[in-house]
Design goal:
single chain, mainly alpha, 2 domains, 19 helices
Length: about 525
């Protein structure tokens, strides 16, 4: 049974990816705690973040953006309309082109490393040793671009088969390798960089056997298939649209490299704040968007407008059900989260203060970021590739303008606020275009949003009061006790939100209860 025809399969797919993503993000937090303790916001942390910035942005581009959103609709359509044999032939034809293309990009990146560092972190010119270390790490890390490109291709193949588990395990393997590298060899972030490359190789390796069993035989021979041209036509606009957002992240990095504007350690601070922000977004926002894409593509191919509208509404509401309480919860608990998880070793109280303020302003844009992922994939399902480009370009223009306006009076917080405001503009523009294409999604939405917001606000106030009260009541001191109490506060706050959601009759909470007790 297709995910397109059964909402429960959509939830199962999103839940599978969400669970794997949760494990990956928890490992990512463990990794970031080790990075913070080892390097804080010092030179090795700054160098690693900048060196990893371009490969990581290209990973987002191919894994969560252009490549996957181009692969999945075409693979899903070919499989639905032309059969398994044509699907396998398309996969073979595309593999060789991607392999040689990504290899060329990786080699070019290693060669151009000094120029790339000069462009992405111009503020490093005042510190030659920092610039030299950043160039060295960039050359080590850039081959990861090719590895993650092939991984994204394999993920697209698997997702078109409604298989989500193995691709979702890739980031878990990646984080384990990075943690191992960091533990084994700490000087100048070389160990974690080598661990990243090993993780990239293993991400590919764990998917290969399953695809081989599905009938895919990869050989480095250039083959032809009509679907390759379709993917090529779709990829161009998607690359432009997705890269606009990535350019926005690079612009933030450029601003943050000038310590005269944001203070020392600005780039590392943005990295840590992003890590906390991306947990709820990846846990369900991105997972739901990716899980919905094959369903939306199949429905659009069959001209099932009502099915597209129903699936879109389901994906949006499910994403917001997690994003809204996460947004308010992050704002309420930003200081205890950052202080408890990161403040040790080289990560100082000043590092905590900078990260907390940045995270709170970033959190304002969380709901917009999650909804934009879903709305963009709706348009991609209809092969509307240029609307997301226009929307992203509009958001980038606003982001850059707001950076110039806000960075001087607010520092790093201004960069975060600019990103949140630009994300809101992007989401609003995309929603207007989706509404125009598939019709209204607003039946009962205002009442639903009001109930969700009420439950989320009550949860945030409860969490804000509970944290200091518990410290006083129980006389908590020391990192292990504080971490245990933080987990308890988060669990109790989540329980309160869920209980209120049930009392306010939010369908998503009721759906979770039915799933837990296996009620249909």
């Amino acid at each position: 049974m297709s995910t397109a025809r059964d909402p429960r399969r959509l939830f199962k797919a999103a839940g599978t990816m969400g669970l794997a993503t949760a494990v990956s993000r928890l490992l990512g937090f463990a990794r970031d705690c080790l990075i913070a303790a080892a390097y804080g916001t010092s030179a090795p942390a700054q160098a690693f973040v900048v060196a990893f910035r371009i490969p990581n942005l290209l990973r987002d581009l191919v894994a969560e953006g252009a490549a996957n959103s181009a692969f999945v609709p075409v693979f899903s359509r070919v499989r639905a309309l032309e059969g398994e044999a044509s699907w396998a032939a398309l996969s073979r034809a595309l593999f060789s082109r991607l392999f040689f293309g990504f290899a060329a990009i990786s080699i070019l990146g290693v060669w151009l490393a000094p120029w790339l560092v000069a462009v992405t972190a111009p503020g490093f010119r005042s510190d030659p040793e920092l610039a030299a270390l950043t160039v060295k790490l960039t050359r080590i890390l850039f081959p990861f671009v090719g590895l993650v490109g092939i991984w994204a291709f394999f993920m697209g193949l698997s997702n078109s088969l409604d298989r989500f588990t193995l691709p979702a395990l890739g980031p878990i393997v990646l984080n384990l390798c990075m943690i191992g590298g960091l533990i084994l060899f700490r000087p100048d972030a070389l160990g974690i960089s080598c661990g990243l490359l090993l993780g990239g190789i293993l991400q590919i390796a764990i998917q290969w056997p399953a695809l081989h069993r599905a009938g895919v035989r990869f050989r480095l021979r250039v083959r032809s298939h009509p679907g390759v041209e379709s993917i090529g036509r779709m990829m161009g606009p998607r690359l432009v649209g997705s890269s606009v957002h990535q350019v926005g992240v690079l612009v933030d990095t450029i601003f943050a490299s000038f310590k005269e504007l944001v203070g020392a350690g600005g780039i590392a601070t943005l990295y840590y704040a992003h890590r906390f922000l991306h947990l709820p977004m990846a846990l369900f926002g991105i997972s739901m968007a990716q899980a919905a894409l094959p369903a939306l593509s199949s429905l659009a191919a069959r001209n099932d407008s009502e099915g597209v509208r129903r699936t879109t509404a389901l994906a949006l509401r499910s994403s917001l059900f997690v994003a809204v309480p996460s947004c308010l919860g992050l704002i309420a608990l930003a200081h205890p989260i950052v202080e408890t998880l990161l403040e040790r070793g080289a990560f100082t109280p000043e590092s905590t203060r900078m990260t907390v303020v940045t995270l709170q302003w970033y959190a304002l844009g969380l709901t917009a970021m999650c909804t934009a992922k879903v709305l963009t994939n709706v348009l991609y399902a209809f092969h509307d590739t240029w609307t997301p480009v226009q929307s992203a370009a509009l958001a980038l223009t606003a982001n850059v303008a707001l950076n110039f306006l806000l960075v001087k009076p607010m520092g790093l917080a201004g960069l975060a606020l600019a990103t949140s405001l630009a994300s809101g503009l992007n989401s609003w523009h995309l929603y207007a275009r989706v509404h125009r294409r598939i019709g209204s999604l607003e039946a009962g939405l205002k009442s639903w949003a009001a109930r969700l917001t009420a439950a989320s606000l009550a949860m945030a106030v409860w969490a804000r009061l509970l944290w200091p009260a518990g410290l006083r009541w129980f006389g908590i001191s020391g990192a292990p006790a504080a971490a245990a109490w933080l987990l308890a506060v988060i669990a109790l706050s989540a329980a309160l939100f869920f209980g209120l959601a049930l009392l306010l009759k939010l369908e998503e909470a009721q759906g979770v209860v039915r799933w837990l007790f296996r009620k249909s």
